[in-house]
Design brief:
The chain is of the alpha+beta class. It has 11 helices and 22 strands. Strand 9 and strand 10 form a beta hairpin. The two termini are 28 Å apart. About 4% of the residues have low confidence. The structure holds zinc ion (ZN).
């Protein structure tokens, strides 16, 4: 081996070790905007760094610190002892398995997290940021988002790859506020560390795997509960055509729990919707009245055309809080009867369809390639320098 090749190999090794240790910053308890929180060490040991100075206090397993918003600073107390007020307080794990819990009045029960925590102030509340390895975060997200909907490792693998892809494609989403992802559904739901062995296994079996499109770009892995037998194109929902998010027939979703729905709406309310949006003619003219109580979608129709009006079915879905925009309408006395299919926007992967594909023996790669056109699964280290 030449010196150059040897050096290149060493560089690759260093790069892969660094990739292994990729950390991300996740804001915790985002929706709760806490003003006071109790941080406890569950295992390991934490050093306390207050405004970049190492504090004499060490958080051993089983001990706690109380942090309170205090006029744009963080007040730090250990029991009845006041340690001071600071702009930033960091909890740095110093053992192998560092785990902490957070408790606050606004949270029904404590949450448990791994690795490091920093606490500052944002607006009128505490800003809690968990610095954690990408893989542990992904496992935590999979458990928060889908545990209970399936028990199958292959399904967890799909979710792990999708979650990792989403995270890496959106690392700058909150960068101005000092972190990468929030823990709410705005980014990805993350309620703490993963405790399920099968989810860990799925995460590590897909280590570093992400989904890329035909140009090797990370995709936006949209998903929903059930497609109703036909997925929707992104262009019909988000006004942006995306080659890997196209409508297709999906028989795997047929018959699952959220495959069908029905809803009865008083005709008066139904008519009012069209009158308010598209004019009085829907109240006064027979032709328009007839039209809005007779509508069928043998296949998904993003737009309902009535004479010169173009009515997006997704708007009707949003207004009447329907499970999907894939529905038929008929008249039943003084009511309109809606019979619908699917649950969610219908774009990308159908979770219930994917669960059925797993049951029939398809691999996670085959399933992702069914719901997303012309994509590949690769290691993200092949395309991004982090
Ligand atoms: Zn967010």
């Amino acid at each position: 081996m030449s010196i150059r090749k040897f050096l290149a190999a060493i560089l690759c090794l260093v790069a892969s070790i660094e990739a292994f240790s990729l950390n991300i910053k996740v804001r915790l308890l985002t929706e709760y905007t806490p003003t006071s929180v109790v941080v406890s060490a569950v295992s390991g040991r934490y050093s306390l760094i207050c405004d970049k100075q190492i504090n004499a206090v060490v958080l051993e397993a089983g001990t706690s610190i109380t942090l309170t918003y205090f006029g744009n600073r963080v007040k730090v107390e250990k029991g009845i002892e006041l340690l001071g007020t600071f702009t930033e307080v960091e909890f740095i794990g110093t053992k192998y398995n560092n785990v902490f819990s957070l408790k606050t009045d606004k949270l029904p029960q404590e949450r448990v997290y791994e690795e490091n925590l920093s606490v500052g102030v944002l607006g009128n509340s505490l800003l809690l940021i968990n610095t954690i390895s990408l893989e542990k975060y992904v496992a935590g997200v999979v458990q928060s988002e889908v545990y209970g909907s399936s028990q199958d490792v292959e399904f967890f693998k799909i979710q792990a790859i999708a979650s990792r892809t989403y995270c890496l494609a959106n690392l700058n989403r909150h960068i101005r506020q000092g972190y990468n992802m929030c823990d709410a559904v705005h980014c990805q739901s993350y309620k703490g560390r993963c405790t399920q062995a099968d989810i860990f296994r799925a995460t590590y079996e897909t280590f570093n795997d992400v989904i890329v499109d035909s140009l090797n770009r990370l995709i936006s892995p949209a998903y929903h509960s059930n497609s109703g037998g036909m997925t929707e194109s992104a262009g019909n929902i988000w006004q942006k055509d995306i080659p890997y998010l196209q409508s297709k027939i999906d028989t795997f979703s047929v018959g699952a729990r959220n495959y069908e729905w029905e809803k009865i709406i008083p005709k008066r309310l139904w008519v009012n919707y069209f009158v308010e949006k598209y004019g009085e003619k829907y109240r006064t003219e027979e032709l328009y009245q007839e039209a809005i109580v007779n509508f069928e979608q043998p296949i998904r129709k993003a737009l309902w055309i009535i004479e010169s009006d173009t009515i997006p079915t997704k708007d009707i879905r949003a207004y009447f809080k329907l499970r999907s925009a894939f529905f038929n309408v008929s008249l039943q006395g003084d009511n309109v009867y809606l019979k619908g299919k699917g649950y969610g926007h219908g774009v990308g992967l159908s979770q219930e369809g994917a669960i059925e594909m797993v049951r029939r023996g398809y691999s996670c790669e085959e399933i992702l390639q069914f719901y997303f056109n012309n994509v590949r699964i690769i290691k993200y280290t092949e395309i991004i320098d982090l």
